[in-house]
Amino acid sequence: MIAKRRRGELPDQDARERAGTALDQIKYNHRVKVLIFGGSFDPPHIGHATLLKAAADLIKPDRILVIPAFRAPLKNPQTVPAADRLRLLKLGLPPMLPPRWRRIVHIDTRELLSRRRVYTVETLTRLKAEHSDWELNFVIGSDWATAWSKWRARKQLTRLCRWWTALRPGTPRRRIPEHFTLIRRPMPDVSSTDLRANLAAGLDCSRWLHPRVAILIARRGLYGTGLSAALKSDLDPERFVHTLAVRRLAEALARRWNEDPRRASLAALLHDCGRMINKKRLTRYALDHGLQVPLLRTVARRQPGLLHAYVGEDLARRRFGCRDHAVLRAVRNHTLGSPSMSRLDRILYVADSVSEDRRHPQAAPLRRLAFQDLEAAFTASLAAKLSHAVGQGAWVHPLSISLWNRLCAKP
Ligand SMILES: [Fe+2]
Ligand SMILES: [Fe+2]
């Protein structure tokens, strides 16, 4: 039984100890529950907000940390400068959350401002060292969760925090590693990869983006949204019509042959962007920008027009911010070809050779053939191009000849 203390009297030793222990207990029990949401947010969209809200509703954190990566280790290089991504994130993610969660969101820019690739294990170790009372929960999209085997220091990561994810439509549960807690809420079927491709292809993405994000993307021409407008103003009208025809055919062929139609669409839109450069200036451009064109001097002397594919690849990267290597490669290979061409390369090659605006007699039959036998249409398109060049007495690049010989060598 505790003796009653008179006013002004100090508590006895036991009471002081008991009070101290209780205080320690409270201190000990008060762990700060932190929800971390990492990613590229390139661009931020409604799927990010839905996932973060669902995780917060479940975890009920004291603090939410959104950590944009400068360069996400598992992803291709981001297409948009870090400063723009940060602006998009500020405009596009917190405002889509309910006020309860919006109030406790902090955007941690240290990874982004480090201007280098930062692994998640580094970030979590730093946070643990700086805040020993933080209880960490990390939420990621199911595309990242299914790629868990590629993450660095996985054992350490599972010790450092608790992992959460939610299934996006089409992701099977069995592909999510055991240590993830599944958030059983419906997620919208949208990803940044899809959005980038759709934006570049000029499709309306407003239903997936916060209005202010959509406005900033359009105003700054991010993700290739300025591409169609630039092509329309800088290519001659006939070339622009040809570009659109190639795009239609490339998209259709990609669907037929299980390639990504948006990628094919972007490659087709970009394929002749090198034609923006005057024929006489293509060689100068190639030399000034150090383009790696096999036999550049000979091409420049014999067939300078062929350089537009290499110049186009460079413009696609520098001017239009394309970082998709498969797309860039298809653009580069659409004139000379090369002995090893991907299916996307071949689709673009065929689409360029036999698009609806082409008037040569083989165009229509080869267009039909391309939907039945892509390889046959590709070989026939190359043969038509080579025989036309030989018929004109033109020089033929060794890359095209090697490609032809390789195709002939196939049984
Ligand atoms: Fe071309
Ligand atoms: Fe073309």
**Which spans have pLDDT < 50 for at least 5 consecutive residues?**
1-11, 74-78
The set of bound ligands, ions and cofactors reads:
fe (ii) ion
Q: What oligomeric arrangement do these chains adopt? A: single chain
Give the CATH level 1 class of the largest domain: Mainly Alpha
Characterize the overall form: elongated
Secondary-structure element order, as H and E? HEHEHHEHHEHHEEHHHHHHHHHHHHH
The CATH H-level superfamily of the largest domain is Hypothetical protein af1432
Main sheet summary: 6 strands, parallel
Task: Give an overview of the whole structure.
The protein is of the alpha/beta class and 411 residues long. The chain folds into 2 domains: 30-211, Rossmann fold, CATH 3.40.50; 226-409, Hypothetical protein af1432 (Orthogonal Bundle), CATH 1.10.3210. It has 21 helices and 6 strands. It has helices spanning 13-29, 46-59, 82-92, 99-102, 110-114, 120-130, 142-145, 154-160, 192-200, 211-220, 227-234, 237-256, 261-270, 282-288, 296-302, 308-318, 325-332, 343-354, 363-372, 374-391, 398-409; strands spanning 32-39, 63-68, 105-107, 134-141, 162-166, 180-182. A 6-stranded parallel sheet has the order 3-2-1-4-5-6, with helices on both faces. Helix 2 links the parallel strand 1 (32-39) and strand 2. It is elongated and about 85 Å long. The model is unreliable at 1-11 and 74-78 (pLDDT under 50). Bound molecules: fe (ii) ion (2 copies).
